[in-house]
Amino acid sequence: MKKALITGYRGQDGAYLSRFLLEKGYQVYGADIPGDAGAWRLRELGIEGKVKEVPLDLMDEPGIRAALESVQPDEIYNFAAQSFVLTSFAQPVLTSEINAVGVARLLESIRRTCPGARFFQASTAELFGSTGSAQKNETTDFYPRSPYAVSKLYAHWITVNYRQAQKMYACNGILFNHESPLRGEQFVTRKIAAAVARISRGLQETVAVGNLDALRDWGYAKEYVEGMWSMLQQPEPDDYILATGRTHPVREFITAAFASAGMELRWRGAGLEEKGVDAATGKVRVEISEEFYRPADVKELVGDAAKARRVLGWEPKTKFDELTRIMVEAELDRLDGKKVRL
Length: 342
Ligand code: GDP
Fold this sequence. Notes:
Distance between the termini: 26 Å
Strand order of the largest sheet: 3-2-1-4-5-6-11
CATH architecture of the largest domain: 3-Layer(aba) Sandwich
Low-confidence stretches: none
Number of domains: 2
CATH class of the largest domain: Alpha Beta
Bound molecules: guanosine-5'-diphosphate
Strand content: 15-25%
Number of helices: 11
Radius of gyration: 20 Å
Mean pLDDT: 97
CATH topology of the largest domain: Rossmann fold
Helix content: 25-40%
Order of helices and strands: EHEHEHEHHEHEEHEEEHEEHEEEHH
């Protein structure tokens, strides 16, 4: 029985990957700071109690070593991070301690305790930042635009360096935005899906958002974790982009989310005065608030996953409209106390 250790296992990707690996017969160890933040994801997936919990904090190197020594994992997936881009502008040092130096602590601990283990780093499309609107591939230059992205840039290269210098099996999955009903509510897709469900049931009047013009390549997280696992099953370690190759503005996600709940949204005005109005009632449902703008935002992200398709046989299946529908329906099911389709 293979052993996998997943840091940040109560987050969206960690939870989906835990279920996927349990179904494959792995023994799954969930490593995280103690507490029950995110435990609802394991409950909704029906895998609560099936993941063995191991306390692990990326700030604490002796603790990481002790965890690795006791588990002796075959595969390690690192999702633990300060993952909010906006928060990273307010807390750049903490973000770097966890997302950048934390990965060095983890890799060095692996080298000293279980150097044969295979390592996956959750790298990010945010690395591409301001490199224009063309599709990104594994050879595109990086130009990070936030303390979050800068910290992840270090994590990306230290992973490459351990692969090259220490000959460790270490891979980066350069993940474009991937969403699901298990996404945290701080991210725009889940925030919108949850608001749309409450608005359609009369439980909320409006939702305030930031930059409607940002373009993102949104895929379904459930499919992305399968690609991550595949990266660790290859004869040689390498880095791969996971993306859908299609991009949509935030505004379009919002319109599609309302449509999934049977509401037609029309946009009026511009800039901070732009509003999303319910065509049937004339009520304002979406407003803009400066609070959700970033000091520097990434205008457009779209990825080319041809290498993952060619080498891993990985392909995203769920399209934008379907993903939006899945997320809104999940929120309606939650409001109705029904089991969510995950
Ligand atoms: P990210 O791409 O990892 O930062 O994922 P997010 O879902 O947090 O943000 C995606 C894009 O949506 C960014 O360009 C944000 O500026 C934009 N956006 C617009 N309104 C909001 C909002 O209310 N919350 C968040 N999180 N993002 C927003």
